[in-house]
Write a structure and sequence with these properties.
The protein has ten helices and twelve strands. With 280 residues, the chain is of the alpha/beta class. Strand 8 (146-150), helix 6 (154-163) and strand 9 form a beta-alpha-beta unit. The mean pLDDT is 97. The structure holds NADP nicotinamide-adenine-dinucleotide phosphate.
Amino acid sequence: MKEMYAVIGDPIGHSMSPLIHNDAFHNLGIEGYYHAFRVSEDSLEQAIEGMKALQFKGFNVTVPHKVDVMKYLDSLDESATLAGAVNTVVNKNGKWVGYNTDGIGFYRSIENRLSKPLEEVKAVIIGAGGASRGIYATLAKRGIGEIDLVNRTIERAITLKEQCPFPISGKIMSLEEFESEQSRYDVVIQTTSIGMSPNVLEQPVSLKGKVDHQSIVADIIYNPLKTAFLKEAERLGAIAINGVGMFVHQAAESFYIWTNEHPDVERMTQIVYEKLKGAT
Ligand code: NAP
């Protein structure tokens, strides 16, 4: 009999997770099946109890449940505590254990592109929401040299930095302060929702004067594949990386937590590109 897996969220119709996970099960000869379920906020607890009763092996969690799900789990991995949110849950002997693979997924998507050791990297993260928090904590834990944080709501960035248990140097700036900042960055990470389809002409800040041809500019948005922010990065000669890498790597990390097997990330990437190109 196949082991059951799921992703829960609302909306969920456009999720690409079933495609890549079911392909990975098939490709690795694992008896698993992954399905997307639309779960509203008021039926979250019932959905989680239902999956436990049906002995689901694990599930992913997406918007709007990444924080609320935590109160229905039996324990949390450090990755979830650090991120303050859960995107992956595994059934360990009848107990739900929550993880967060967004931060490590992001790191995996850029690690091969870094031109210097992480300890020497000066980075800036634009945005201080859920995704930013996981990425900040992961990079801080791994010993990155410095991270500046830029956000529209400055208090949110201050809280994010204060709650990270790994002290890391770096300034906190508003979007306006960043525009007049004189620093040059090795890595720029765009984590706000600005620039997502259909608002494809928008970008949170300009990169002018902040990057050169060795800088990596990552935008975690993947629809569109090339945001206005990434287009500016390319015009300035920087290395542009879209959010597909983070998406497939977070999925691959979830897959490993559930099955102890590493899926073929290249294959997952191809599937996502085919799907996204077909959709645009
Ligand atoms: P979130 O928690 O809601 O945070 C949103 C962030 O965007 C906050 O920093 C917010 O600033 C900022 N923001 C939103 N609208 C803004 C505006 N009009 N002007 C200035 N700043 C604005 O969202 P999230 O979960 O972190 O997700 C953020 C993005 O990452 C989404 O586009 C999501 O699709 C993408 N994402 C991608 C992956 C992947 O695998 N590639 C994974 C997770 C998320 P304030 O604090 O001032 O509100």
